[in-house]
Amino acid sequence: MRYFTVFLFILLTHSAIGQTDTLVTKIQGTVVHSQTKLPMNNVHVINTTKVRGTITDGNGFFELAAKANDTLLFSYLGFETIKVKVTNDWIKNKTSKISLTEKAYALEEVIISKYNLTGYVEVDTKLIPVSESDYRYSISGLDAGYEAGSKSPSAVTKVLGAIFNPADFLYNAFGKRPKQMRKLKEMKKDDTIRELLATKFDRETLAALLEIDKDDIPLILQNCNYSQYFIKSANDLQILEAISSCYEEYKILKKNK
């Protein structure tokens, strides 16, 4: 009986610890400038584990649902993006202070091209240069097609290869990343994340959210036959939509294989 009591105590203690580690709660914090120590408002705070986000208020304050070992990403234009792990001490104390550091830029020359837009689509589309070499192939049964990037024979061969060997073509992009790709729908639902990605062109935030290397993003888009022009010029939200669209195609093709 004594041994049974000891065993039961250990079991309940282990269960309680496990529940504490997985307990989702509201954590709070304040984001400040690393040098001035002043609070920073409108800083994007993203829980990359739960794929949920918020922004700081005028006092640099934020509140977000999280649990121990979740990763929070802090992003603000002109400042270094950082990732912070949620600890049990943070959850216990309820609040924490996060410092952001300004980026160091070495900018020699900036050239701004001006377009005198009229507001009429038919006119403005002729004023803004468009790459004539970029185009997409449509595939019956799919909402979107494949952007070949050029009209060269090699581009056509690549796209046709994608159509007739869809599993081999897209497996390299998504087959080894099922966990990360399942986050795509959640990312698209969160307005805070969408707002942040619409202002980004560096792929750092998107890579952090998908838990992949930043250099893998161009490779994924190349495997999905997006042109180099699109890969280089699109903002992170457009990149997210492109990867999501291609992933949906991959699931359809894989299902019908």
From TrEMBL:
Residues 1-18 form the signal peptide. This is Carboxypeptidase-like regulatory domain-containing protein. It comes from Flavobacterium jejuense. It comes from the Bacteria. The keyword Signal applies. Keywords: Signal. It holds the Pfam family CarbopepD_reg_2.
